[in-house]
């Protein structure tokens, strides 16, 4: 019995010792696990610090310094990274869970390792790509796109689920912020008077040197940042930019010529900069050495203009050079537009207009006829242009509302209403050139139109232009650079306004446009009496409208005012302004022939007053 008790006590002692050993082992295991957890956290912190140092640097100098400290030979340690992420994905799970989900955890750790390696490599590509430049110093849009591709990859590698490695989506505010880092974006006022609401969201294009408006481009860059971006999120990016970028105003220097390779001012050529806001320019580069007119296969521009187009007429040669000067110096205050006309087509007007388009560039040329200036949607095509060409004006078509056209010619404010956008006011700085076969006809040819309108006949000596001139010679950069150099060298003048052919053409156009002027030119010479009552004159005018098949919409009062105005301006000679006079000197029998023209007969009820002493308002011959 005692022996059994001894054995039992011994066994109990052994069990106690085993219990103590188990307890000690458990405690040791917990301590080891705790220490391992501490070591894991320390390792995680060190690794996180390493990756943050590598991945969060945008400036190349900073990135090179940090990577040299934290990454040996700029090589990604994949084994170390995967070990770290295996600890990360298994943390907090039991051994049984880890054993049952080994493949899934392995896959998640692999994803996280891939993301870390991708971020590391993308960062290296970005640093190599920048090559010491700042983000906003990239010189080409393709460079900006390539940088964003790498930045997007780096961002998506960094922003993943910490357990599964699944990538997250970039928020629209993050996209807006990165776009502001790689581009100079601003709200640009077209005039000093414009409000922010009337202004445009624009970005500075380093390739052109201009601020350009293109939501399509910004949307495309946003999609590079976040491939899965929705249309609504793109609108949110644009909205975030509009709310946060600075406000700038288009440069208003009048003595500047914006050339293809820089802006020319006071004899010097300057590089374009985001600090100086321009929205249009010429396509032709300024070349200080382009002082001689080149000859191509025997063709020479100076000879073409001087001898073939202008027939050696010095005044007309000056007029055509003044057209070119005004196209080149379109930023100066223009006060006229030129209208090239000929009796028939095929004379080469289009060749000269194509020369101007090549000089300016198709991108900065708008196509707009006089009638289209009255259409707000069409007028939007003149916005931000250097040149406006109207080469398809119909012959004898009546030009209606010309108020917007007159304002555009002289740089006044016009209302622009782009489709699907908010209307705004702006000044049209472009030079305006129009062309047609035959004379144009204006519904209201007043002093405002006459002052702005310079008709020039384009009637060269050649029967048919050489096609090579239009297809080859006027596109040659040597010819264009010479023309630009000459346009900057020559003086600007208004001598063309007094050319006899300009004066004669304007008179004919006025008569063709104004039925009153046309009536005065054709019918007043047939009147014999010295005194003619206004009522009789208006009756003659109505008979004239019938003959010309023109609408009789003008009132007698308006007719009297227009004819009186023509007399005062000296455009109708030999007559005095309206005043009261006796009808003694009116011979109705002789003048009634004007009422009997045509097929009908217009009865003038007061003809019995002819020769009487009764007074009435009359037109009186001097």
From TrEMBL:
Entry superkingdom: Bacteria
GO MF entries: ATP binding
Coiled-coil region(s): none
SUPFAM superfamilies, alphabetized: P-loop containing nucleoside triphosphate hydrolases
Keywords, in A-Z order: ATP-binding, Nucleotide-binding
InterPro entries reported in the protein's UniProt record: DNA_primase/NTPase_C (IPR004968), Helicase_put_C_phage/plasmid (IPR006500), Helicase_SF3_DNA-vir (IPR014015), NrS-1_pol-like_helicase (IPR045455), P-loop_NTPase (IPR027417)
PROSITE patterns: SF3_HELICASE_1 (PS51206)
Domain SF3 helicase: 315-471
Identification of the protein by name: DNA primase
Lineage per the UniProt record: Bacteria, Bacillati, Bacillota, Bacilli, Lactobacillales
């Amino acid at each position: 019995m005692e022996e059994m008790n001894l054995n039992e006590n011994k066994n109990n002692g052994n069990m106690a010792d085993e219990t103590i050993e188990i307890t000690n082992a458990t405690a040791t295991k917990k301590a080891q696990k705790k220490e391992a957890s501490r070591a894991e956290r320390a390792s995680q912190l060190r690794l996180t610090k390493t990756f943050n140092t590598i991945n969060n640097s945008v400036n190349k100098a900073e990135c090179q310094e940090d990577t040299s400290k934290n990454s040996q030979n700029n090589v990604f340690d994949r084994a170390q990274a995967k070990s770290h992420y295996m600890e990360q994905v298994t943390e907090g799970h039991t051994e049984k869970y880890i054993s049952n989900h080994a493949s899934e955890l392995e896959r998640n750790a692999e994803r996280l390792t891939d993301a870390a390696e991708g971020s590391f490599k993308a960062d290296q590509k970005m640093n190599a790509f920048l090559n010491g430049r700042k983000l906003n110093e990239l010189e080409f849009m393709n460079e900006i796109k390539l940088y964003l591709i790498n930045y997007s990859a780096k961002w998506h590698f960094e922003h993943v689920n910490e357990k599964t490695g699944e990538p997250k989506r970039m928020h629209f505010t993050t996209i807006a912020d990165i776009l502001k880092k790689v581009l100079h974006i601003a709200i640009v006022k077209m005039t000093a008077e414009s409000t922010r609401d009337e202004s445009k969201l624009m970005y500075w294009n380093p390739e052109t040197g201009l601020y350009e408006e293109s939501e399509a481009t910004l949307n495309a860059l946003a999609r590079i940042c976040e491939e899965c971006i929705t249309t609504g999120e793109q609108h949110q990016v644009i909205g975030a930019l509009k709310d946060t970028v600075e406000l700038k105003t288009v440069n208003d220097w009048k003595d500047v010529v914006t050339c293809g390779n820089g802006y020319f001012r006071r004899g010097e050529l300057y590089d374009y900069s985001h600090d100086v806001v321009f929205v249009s320019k010429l396509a032709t580069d300024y070349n200080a050495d382009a002082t001689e007119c080149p000859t191509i296969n025997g063709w020479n521009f100076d000879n073409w203009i001087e001898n073939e187009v202008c027939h050696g007429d010095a005044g007309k040669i000056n007029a055509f050079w003044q057209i070119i000067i005004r196209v080149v110096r379109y930023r100066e205050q223009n006060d006229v537009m030129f209208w090239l006309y000929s009796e028939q087509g095929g004379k080469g007007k289009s060749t000269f207009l194509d020369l101007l388009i090549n000089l300016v560039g198709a991108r900065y040329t708008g196509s707009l006829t006089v009638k289209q200036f009255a259409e707000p949607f069409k007028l939007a095509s003149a916005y931000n242009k250097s040149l406006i060409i109207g080469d398809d004006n119909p012959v004898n078509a009546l030009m209606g509302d010309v108020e917007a056209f007159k304002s555009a010619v002289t740089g006044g404010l016009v209302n622009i209403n782009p489709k699907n956008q908010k209307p705004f006011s702006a000044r049209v700085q472009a030079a305006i050139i129009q062309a047609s076969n035959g004379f144009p006809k204006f519904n209201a040819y007043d002093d405002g139109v006459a002052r702005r309108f310079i008709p020039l006949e384009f009637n060269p000596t050649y029967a048919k232009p050489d096609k090579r001139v239009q297809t080859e010679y006027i596109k040659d950069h040597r010819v264009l650079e010479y023309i630009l150099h000459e346009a900057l060298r020559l003086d600007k003048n208004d001598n063309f306004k007094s050319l006899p052919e300009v004066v004669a053409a304007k008179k004919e156009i006025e008569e063709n446009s104004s039925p009153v002027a046309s009536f005065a030119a054709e019918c007043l010479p047939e009147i014999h009496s010295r005194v003619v009552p206004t009522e009789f004159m208006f009756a003659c005018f109505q008979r004239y409208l019938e003959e010309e098949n023109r609408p009789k919409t003008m009132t007698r009062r308006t007719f009297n005012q227009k004819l009186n105005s023509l007399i005062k301006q000296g455009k109708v000679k030999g007559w005095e302004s309206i005043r009261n006079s006796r009808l003694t000197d009116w011979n109705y029998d002789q003048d009634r022939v004007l009422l009997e023209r045509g097929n009908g007969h217009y009865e003038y009820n007061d003809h019995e007053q002819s020769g009487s002493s009764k007074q009435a308002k009359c037109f009186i011959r001097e």
